[in-house]
Amino acid sequence: MNIKQNITNRFDKTTVESLYSQLENIKNNLHNGIGEGSEFTGWLHLPSEVGESKIQEIEQTAEKLKKTDAVVIVGIGGSYLGAKAVISALQKPFSQQDKPEIIFAGNHISDTYLYHLLNYLENKNFGIVVISKSGTTLEPALAFRLLRNLLNKQKGEKASEYIVAITDKEKGALKKLADKENFKTFVIPDNVGGRFSVLTPVGLLPISIAGFDIKKLISGAKNMEEKLSLKTNIKDDIAIEYALVRNLLYQNGKKIEIMANYTPELKYFAEWWKQLYGESEGKNHKGIFPASVNFTTDLHSLGQYIQDGERILFETVLNIKNTNTKLEVPFDNDNLDGLNYLAEKQVDFVNKQAMTGTIKAHESGNVPNIVIDIDSLNEQNIGELIYFFEKACAYSAYLLGVNPFNQPGVEDYKRNMYELLKK
Questions:
Q1: Which of 318, 317, 316 is nearest to 249 (CA)?
Q2: What Rg value do the Cα atoms of the chain yield, rounded?
Q3: Predicted TM-score (pTM) of this structure
Q4: Which residue out of 279, 315, 384, 390 is catalytically annotated?
Q5: Phi, psi of 76 (to 5 degrees)
């Protein structure tokens, strides 16, 4: 993958060099474990430290759960978004593959969704992967109680064989229950926060159950870890470049970053990215607001605002250079739709021209664009992309002057909610 941008050239060289100098210090501090929140930087060398035995354990557990009709992944925030992002990016639309259906629950409190989910699973052979460090976060705990109740009715004493808990190593309600009921367990590392946890069992187990190669995913992340190592020159480090450009734009009034993709498979990758950056940077009344659009679909709804609305936006475009399919526009004798000028061209070629034309239009309307090129959608390249965004996120947050690894504001709504519920 690589970054294309002409934004740094628009700014005073002294300003750019000053930011490079700050980022060099930030990079050294991050790698030497002396930045704020450094106790939560276990993700930094995770790709190179995931052992073969742990991968085998995850894959063996996945194989057991693959024998069911469906597996429900119970979690919220970082406990499900990373897995959802990777699975959605790699799944073939409309495919009926020989593997269980992957269902996500515990990421909201909708009685309608849960009611129909329970009805759907009533006569199915299903398993549960429940992901929570504490086991008491309301959304996943509520969903897990309902699902476990149904599983107990179906399986009786054997229900525990269909439940995997990914939780704290030694404390918390879920850990206590897992020990009592003899669930298979995996550990959420103490030094890895939820939004950075996709390369731990939190993300790897659901991805493996869905039938994708977690070894290749980790290999891609390891490759990017090496590319962005401490010894990499600051001017050759693409994570540094992305952090620098974002902050240059932020300092000049661009307060909202839109992640744009031109393939619907990346919709949930953008959702993962939004949590990663929103929860890491949005503190002390600072931070770039992360949003996302799915083009060309959203050009017919939000395109007008992006082109002509308030000039507080910039875009980061994910460009998949090579699709895994080939489809040509057929010639039509009547040509009533007027599309014969596209005959025998690849549909992806048409999509790429739409992307190029949109970037030109938005840049002419003072919406700067950063383009991230990804060769193709596969486990290796997604692994690279995940690690790249995690590393750049840490740099960018530190450059803003905030701790990338805490989320004090998340607790405020919980206090109010629990007070109203009379917990």
A1: 316
A2: 23
A3: 0.95
A4: 279
A5: -135, 155
| DSSP H or E stretch at residue 267 | helix 267-281
Average pLDDT over residues 144-148: 97
Tokens representing residue 160 in the block: 């525990």
Please report, in angstroms and rounded to a whole number, the separation of the first and last CA atoms in the chain. Answer: 48
Instruction: Name the percent of the chain in helix, strand, coil, to the closest 5.
Output: 55, 15, 30
> Using an 8 Å Cβ cutoff, are 290 and 277 in contact?
yes
Please report how many Cα atoms fall inside a 13 Å half-sphere around the Cα of residue 87, on the Cβ side.
23
Catalytic status, residue 279: yes
Q: So what CATH class is 43-212?
A: alpha beta
Listed by start position, the domains of the chain span 2-35+219-400, 43-212
Cα distance between residue 107 and residue 74, in whole Å? 7
What homologous superfamily is domain 2-35+219-400 in, according to CATH? Glucose-6-phosphate isomerase like protein; domain 1 (3.40.50.10490)
DSSP 8-state assignment for residue 321: S
Tell me the two tokens of residue 52. Answer: 């073969």
pLDDT in tens, 106-138: 999 999 999 999 999 999 999 999 999 999 899
Q: Over the stretch 225-270, which tens digit does the pLDDT of each residue have?
A: 999 999 999 999 999 999 999 999 999 999 999 999 999 999 999 9
Residue from 13, 231, 300, 422 carrying the catalytic annotation: 300
Question: Does 285 participate in catalysis according to the annotation?
Answer: no
Instruction: Check for a shared fold between 2-35+219-400 and 43-212.
Output: yes
Question: What average pLDDT score do residues 360-370 get?
Answer: 97
Distance (Å, rounded) from C-alpha 187 to C-alpha 69? 26
